[in-house]
């Protein structure tokens, strides 16, 4: 018998939530009644009318001087007045776990404490159940407490090793990493060998997920030191974290080991390899990067080209071209065009074109093929070296391969010709270029102008300017000097560079002559002029893309800048970091260019790793606003690790989408990180954040945010308070808003807007008593609710039987705000109509008319609904006639009330006419109108008319929806027309519509009652095919039909299929079936149904337990009966007296009399009185066992309960005690004398 049966029963955790909610409401009601009284007295004594401007200014000034530190903590403590931090008992913990594994916990209710093997059984059972229901944090916490409790009570005998491993595995899976860590390494400290690879792998993954790198690496090193191999996923997660945190050496080591153990890599591992190679190359560890790539290639020949590119770029930066070539040969990889062009460009710049050509031949030997950009690079550098012949040879070779030169190549050739003085041939290049289909752009003309200006061929410059004008490259006015425009194209100030005629006869300045012999000279700083011209020509040989990108960014032309970046990468050039940052910042400012940001950062990773903090913040913000949270989180984590300053806007941009998605784990992590870094959102984002926080009912964060805002923005504290009240009042947290006001009552006075927000919130939450209290307080301050609040309050005041208050409120508003009169009267009349007091409603309607207010459509609808509810046909007719005369539109609610009344009164023809009227008013709502009519016609049994209406709908091509079919199914079922109900139900399903649970329930149960089990099973089959749950009534009807036919096995198979296919709803109730299975001797099935209910958090009735217990007693399975009896008591269920009698009798017959007596003692402690038969049965058992002392004590208890033992029992005890000597402890009487005296056989003298 369990010892805990003797203790008072505590609240079951399965019912705790509801009771807790009730107690909290009780607390809030008491608190608010106190709060309003204290708040009212404080505000009335400390401030004048809050509606005045001066009062508002005083409040604002007062708020700015208040210290709000600790506000959140104080309010939170009041929000949880019933928090109980006491350690849970074993019973509470078992109750929590019993909703998952009731079949196991049932065996432990009778034990005073658990042994290690019991804990192991619990853990094994829960672990197997996790495969079906998943791992739940609260359940694992309960198991952890049980585990610790068992360890404390059994310090001499340690928990079994299997328990440790399962417990640790569960802890890791729910994120309780420290607990799992301590548990595992406690065993290690005791010298116990652990070789469970999976647990340690999960632990490493957990630490990596929480970004606790040091601990993750420690556990990894421990595993490897013990010869354990982490899982592939563990390796992947750890490498990714190491790379993100730029831990090069351990990342290299871990990835190398992963390749050794697992060989071929997948996409995620390939990405990790890319990041590691970038990291290694960035740190100058090219050899390590090279080695890891060689290792990976042994198992996975398809390594990303980005990996080879990064290694090549690193070699290129070191100018180690020999090792670069050997790398390509060793890995048998043909370099990409981007890599080769970068290398060739670098060699040309550092050495010569000849050296680059030799290296290029080596690349060709391993399979590289030159493209037009490669030839363009060789041509450009040849021109810069003055080797025009080589450049032309490259051009010829290029053309022979069918490659079309790019415009940069033509520009280089033109510039090269100018450099060697072949001025006349420059124009030929332009013509050749145009003949081959490459149109020149302004850069080509700029090179030509520069070359001609250098040679002082200004006549050709003029013709080029006119050509540019005709080609649309520039716009030249008729008054503008072409040479002036040419100097502008070259970047000169026209005022500083002029071409003048030499008219000085004494001192000649002539430098050259024009075509008619005029002497000319250049009026400018010749050195500056020549240098700029030379720079233009040199730049055109090797394009400087960075300057081009900078120019496009200055013009805010992002599309052109991106095209240039792509071109730059092809030419093997690099973008200067300032220009790269400028471009990224501009792209981040445009939501449409976020994908471009991703591409440019991926394509230029080394520059991306060098971005400044401001740009990185903008990138995170852009990613977050676009919803690219994975990329935003990765970059933000990297910034945190590198201790880069993170802006408030960045944290806000990250938190907003996390709040929207509701990912609490990640949200908490970034929220805490933001708070540690003194995050402060702007005033504009405060409300947006607060709305999302309150949507998820994260009270702590809402209060924390409020406190931060009040402390950080002292000048706008009043506005912050108003926003806070508004948001909480509209998100179902008005109670919390009042608690905040209670904290602020010394410095914040409720004004008109605040009262309205709070009252509106309480009304929307259905807490009208609190809204009424606020209304009283508001009226005491001579403040009046706004119109929408009045419309909410007045009907509820009428409903709460506070007529006088509603009327008084109406009188005040009519007097103070006449413009509200009509709406207030409507609200008052509506309130009286809703409560059925039509006399009052009509009185105020007449009063309204007397005050000059007229009846309108809204009020007419209210009155129609009220009189329909009262079944007043005469009044309804009058109002309906008025509505028709005035052409007022009847609401759907009015139409519904009218149709109900007409059908109930037998005026079906009127209901049909009304349908036509409403259809004329609302043709778009035709289906709704027909649905209402069909429902009410069927509710009064007019199925024939409904068939005509369905035909009419078909003629009008009105398609029935789910509501229509549900009304038809339920309606025909009400009319006892099962065949029609079944017809519409099957038609509905065939059309892909889902019937309501009621429709399915009614039809299936009716089919079963009518003996149509096969049809019911066919319907069930259709439901199962679609994965529709079978509710309690449906399962009971089908199962009972099987049982009534004696098909017990089929009944069990049907219920088993419901469980296997997960078609059992959470609110399942098997009480009725449990009784029937017990009657059919299927006790195990009954117990299984009890288990299903408990797993769905539904407590079976005591009658179900009684039935099973009696069945087990009949089969002499007393231990099973005792387990269920113990579970029953722990679920706060009380067994029936006859069940207890059977238990007592069964245990006594089995020779377990002491346990039988425990049932009696437990009854007495619960305040129940055992029956006389129960006492006699136990006494008889003790007599049989010759335990006369126990029998005597129990007989005394029996007499104390008001029962007299029979003569046979007395005499048996007397005869058996004749030879017993006992000390007299009751006035020197022996045991026999005492027994006879208490039995009434000896009289006191």
Description:
This protein starts with 12 loop residues before the first helix and ends in a 6-residue tail after the last helix. The protein is extended and about 155 Å long. The protein is built from 68 helices and 3 strands. The relative contact order is 0.04. A hairpin with a 5-residue loop joins β2 and β3 (519-523). The longest helix is centred in the N-terminal third of the chain and has 34 residues, at 13-46. 70% of the residues lie in helices and 1% in strands. A 3-stranded antiparallel beta sheet has the order 1-3-2, with no helix packed on it. The chain is an all-alpha fold and 1245 residues long.
The main β sheet shows up as: 3 strands, antiparallel
Structural class by helix and strand composition? mainly alpha
Oligomer: single chain
Number of strands: 3
Q: Uncertain segments of ≥5 residues (pLDDT<50)? A: 1-24, 30-57, 1221-1232, 1238-1245
**Shape summary:** extended
Estimate percent helicity. Answer: over 70%
Family: Belongs to the PPR family. P subfamily.
Keywords: Repeat
Protein name: Pentatricopeptide repeat-containing protein
């Amino acid at each position: 018998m369990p010892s805990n049966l003797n203790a008072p029963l505590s609240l079951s955790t399965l019912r705790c939530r509801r009771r807790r909610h009730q107690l909290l409401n009780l607390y809030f009601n008491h608190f608010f009644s106190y709060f309003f009284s204290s708040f009212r007295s404080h505000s009335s004594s400390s401030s004048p009318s809050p509606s005045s401007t001066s009062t508002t200014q005083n409040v604002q000034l007062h708020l700015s001087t208040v210290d709000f530190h600790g506000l959140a903590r104080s309010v939170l403590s009041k929000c949880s007045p019933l928090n109980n931090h006491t350690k849970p008992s074993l019973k509470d913990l078992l109750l929590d776990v019993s909703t998952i594994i009731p079949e196991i916990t049932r065996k432990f209710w009778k034990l005073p404490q658990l042994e290690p093997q019991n804990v192991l059984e619990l853990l094994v059972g829960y672990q197997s159940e996790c495969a079906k229901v998943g791992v739940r944090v609260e359940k694992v916490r309960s198991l952890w407490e049980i585990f610790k409790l068992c360890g404390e009570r059994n310090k001499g005998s340690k928990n079994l090793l299997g328990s440790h491993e399962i417990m640790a595995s569960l802890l890791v899976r729910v994120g309780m990493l420290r607990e799992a860590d301590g548990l595992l390494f406690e065993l290690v400290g005791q010298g116990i060998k652990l070789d469970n690879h999976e647990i340690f792998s999960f632990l490493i993954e957990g630490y990596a997920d929480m970004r606790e790198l040091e601990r993750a690496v420690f556990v990894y090193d421990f595993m490897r030191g013990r010869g354990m191999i982490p899982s592939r996923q563990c390796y992947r997660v750890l490498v990714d974290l190491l790379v993100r945190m730029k831990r090069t050496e351990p990342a290299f080591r871990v990835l190398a080991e992963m390749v050794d153990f697992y060989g071929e890599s997948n996409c995620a591992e390939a990405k990790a390899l890319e990041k590691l190679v970038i990291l290694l190359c960035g740190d100058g560890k090219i050899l390590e990067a090279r080695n890891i790539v060689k290792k990976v290639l042994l198992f996975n020949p398809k390594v990303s080209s980005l990996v080879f590119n990064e290694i090549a770029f690193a070699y290129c930066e070191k100018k180690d071209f020999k090792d670069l070539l050997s790398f390509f040969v060793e890995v048998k990889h043909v370099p990409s065009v981007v890599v080769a062009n970068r290398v060739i460009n670098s060699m040309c710049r550092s050495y010569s074109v000849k050296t680059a050509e030799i290296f290029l031949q080596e690349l060709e030997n391993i399979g590289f093929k030159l493209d037009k950009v490669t030839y363009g690079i060789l041509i450009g550098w040849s021109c810069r070296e003055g080797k025009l012949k080589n450049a032309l040879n490259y051009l010829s070779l290029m053309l022979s391969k069918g490659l079309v030169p790019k415009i940069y190549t033509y520009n280089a050739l033109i510039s090269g010709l100018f450099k060697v003085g072949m001025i006349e041939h420059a124009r030929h290049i332009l013509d050749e270029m145009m003949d081959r289909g490459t149109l020149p752009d302004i850069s080509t003309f700029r090179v030509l102008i520069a070359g001609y200006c250098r040679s002082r061929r200004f006549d050709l410059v003029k013709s080029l300017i006119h050509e540019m004008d005709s080609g649309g490259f520039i716009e030249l006015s008729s008054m503008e000097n072409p040479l002036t425009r040419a100097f502008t194209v070259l970047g000169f100030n026209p005022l500083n560079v002029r071409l003048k005629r030499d008219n000085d006869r004494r001192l000649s300045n002539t430098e050259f002559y024009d075509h008619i012999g005029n002497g000319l000279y250049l009026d400018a700083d010749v050195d500056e002029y020549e240098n700029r011209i030379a720079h233009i020509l040199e730049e055109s040989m090797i394009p400087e893309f960075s300057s081009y990108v900078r120019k496009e960014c200055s013009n805010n032309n992002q599309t052109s800048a991106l095209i240039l970046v792509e071109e730059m990468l092809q030419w093997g050039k690099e973008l200067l970091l300032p220009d790269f940052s400028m471009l990224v910042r501009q792209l981040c400012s445009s939501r449409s260019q976020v994908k471009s940001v991703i591409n440019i950062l991926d394509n230029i990773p080394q520059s991306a790793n060098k971005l400044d903090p401001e740009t990185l913040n903008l990138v995170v913000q852009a990613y977050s606003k676009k919803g690219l949270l994975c990329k935003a989180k990765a970059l933000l984590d990297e910034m945190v690790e590198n201790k880069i300053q993170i802006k408030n806007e960045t944290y806000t941009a990250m938190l907003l989408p996390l709040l929207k998605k509701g990912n609490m784990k990640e949200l908490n992590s970034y929220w805490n990180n933001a708070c540690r870094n003194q995050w402060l959102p702007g005033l504009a984002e405060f409300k947006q954040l607060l709305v999302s926080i309150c949507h998820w009912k994260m009270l702590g964060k809402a209060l924390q945010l409020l406190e931060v805002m009040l402390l950080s923005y002292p000048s706008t504290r009043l506005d912050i308070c108003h926003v806070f009240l508004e948001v909480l009042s509209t998100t179902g947290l008005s109670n919390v808003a009042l608690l905040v006001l209670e904290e602020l009552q010394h410095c914040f006075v409720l004004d008109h807007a605040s009262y309205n927000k709070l009252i509106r919130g309480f009304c929307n939450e259905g807490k009208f008593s609190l809204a009424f209290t606020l209304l009283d307080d508001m009226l005491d301050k001579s403040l009046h609710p706004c119109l929408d609040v009045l419309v909410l309050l007045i009907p509820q005041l009428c409903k709460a039987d506070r007529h006088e208050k509603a009327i008084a409120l109406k009188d005040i508003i009519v007097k103070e705000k006449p413009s509200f009169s009509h709406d207030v009267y409507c609200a008052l009349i509506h309130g009286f109509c809703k409560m059925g007091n039509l006399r009052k409603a009509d009185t105020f309607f007449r009063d309204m008319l007397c005050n000059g207010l007229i009846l309108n459509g809204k009020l007419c609808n209210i009155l129609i609904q009220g009189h329909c509810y009262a079944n007043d046909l005469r009044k309804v007719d009058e109002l309906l006639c008025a509505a028709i005369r005035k052409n007022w539109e009847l609401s759907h609610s009015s139409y519904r009330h009218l149709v109900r009344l007409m059908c109930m009164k037998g005026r079906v023809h009127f209901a049909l006419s009304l349908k036509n009227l409403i259809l004329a008013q609302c043709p778009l709502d035709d289906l709704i109108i027909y649905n209402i009519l069909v429902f009410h016609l069927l509710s009064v049994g007019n199925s024939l008319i409904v068939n005509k209406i369905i035909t009419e709908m078909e003629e009008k091509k009105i398609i029935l929806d789910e509501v229509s079919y549900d009304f038809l199914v339920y309606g025909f079922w009400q009319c006892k027309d099962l065949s029609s109900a079944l017809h519409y139900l099957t038609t509905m399903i065939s059309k892909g519509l889902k019937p309501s649970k009621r429709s399915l329930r009614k039809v299936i149960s009716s089919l079963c009652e009518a003996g149509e089990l096969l049809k019911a099973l066919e319907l069930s089959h259709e439901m199962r095919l679609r994965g529709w749950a079978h509710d309690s009534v449906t399962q009971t009807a089908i199962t009972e039909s099987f049982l009534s036919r004696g098909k017990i096995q089929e009944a069990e198979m049907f219920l088993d299929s419901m469980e296997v296919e997960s078609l059992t709803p959470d609110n399942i109730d098997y009480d009725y079936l449990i009784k029937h299975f017990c009657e059919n001797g299927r006790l195990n099935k009954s117990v299984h149904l009890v288990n299903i209910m408990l797993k769905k958090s539904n407590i079976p009735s005591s009658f179900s337990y009684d039935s099973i217990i009696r069945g087990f007693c009949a089969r002499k399975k007393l231990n099973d009966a005792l387990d269920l009896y113990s579970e029953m008591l722990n679920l706060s269920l009380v067994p029936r007296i006859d069940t207890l009698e059977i238990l007592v009798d069964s245990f006594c017959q089995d020779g377990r009399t002491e346990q039988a007596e425990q049932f009696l003692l437990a009854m007495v402690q619960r305040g129940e009185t055992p029956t006389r038969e129960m006492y006699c049965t136990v006494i008889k058992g003790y007599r049989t066992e010759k335990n006369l002392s126990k029998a005597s004590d129990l007989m005394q208890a029996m007499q104390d309960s008001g029962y007299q033992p029979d003569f046979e029992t007395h005499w048996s005890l007397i005869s058996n005690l004749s030879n017993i000597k006992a000390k007299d402890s009751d006035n020197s009487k022996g045991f026999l004398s005492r027994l006879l005296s208490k039995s009434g056989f000896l009289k006191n003298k």
